[in-house]
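A student in our group prepared the protein record below, which I am reviewing. What it holds is a sequence and that sequence's fold in token form. My question to you is simply how this chain folds and whether the tokens agree. Do not assume that whoever made the record got everything right. I have pasted the whole thing underneath without changing anything:
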Amino acid sequence: MNKKIFIIVLITIMVLCILIAGVIRIRKANSEDRENTLIIGLDDSFPPYGFRNENNEIEGLDVDLAKAVGEKIGKKVKFQPISWASKEQELNNGNIDCIWNGFAYSPDRAKTMTLSKKYLKGEMYFMLKGNSNIKSQDELVGKKIGVQSGSVQEADLENSTFGTQVEIIPYSDFLIACLDLETGGIDAVYTSSIYGNYIIESKNKDYRTIPSYDISNASGTVIAFKLGNVELKEKIENALEQLEKEGKLEEVSMKWLGSSMIKLQEE
């Protein structure tokens, strides 16, 4: 090998080494950044839990809680909008660390995910246009009922006797269902009172509600983790317990719900 070729080979090796070292540093930095970041999956159109404001920023009740927890456990918090219909897949693939967005407890969900203690409870009801003459659940038989695809409301309706007597219309999110309600595409939206009351009061909507019965299996709002991830569950619960003692949970509740409703429950 003559001297010129040797120099070229040497320079090439040096450049490759520099490039490889750079890639290693970037991967290490990315790995460390991932370890120090809590990625939360949410539906960014589900007030008051998580939604986009007029500046396209994600805010809400669960957003405030998650940020406070992030400070407690020393992690940055990243909010990742996801398709609600594929939330379990996002969790199982490791794309998100938890689902924290008005996520209702149900026995079926407890079989496939690790769930936190319940911290908020609302009733399930039907939301109708203000001028609707429907007065009870029984009068909804044969009508079109809107739900969010992948929600506990959809699952409970599908598994109930009442659900076989109505036409269940799934939507990508509840806001779209409400828009269709206003235009007469459906007769009612089956949803949580926490969501419904917030929409009615904050948006000054001309909706009215009627109670539901013999449908819901939900018993409170929880945070969902990949099945078996008890370590992260307990870390977040411990942080919430500290925040509860400090009055932060009540502060967030008063801000978004107008009353003290957030309380970490015993399992």
The chain has nine helices and 13 strands. The mean pLDDT is 90. Residues 124-211 form a domain with the D-Maltodextrin-Binding Protein; domain 2 fold (CATH 3.40.190.10). The longest strand covers residues 98-104.
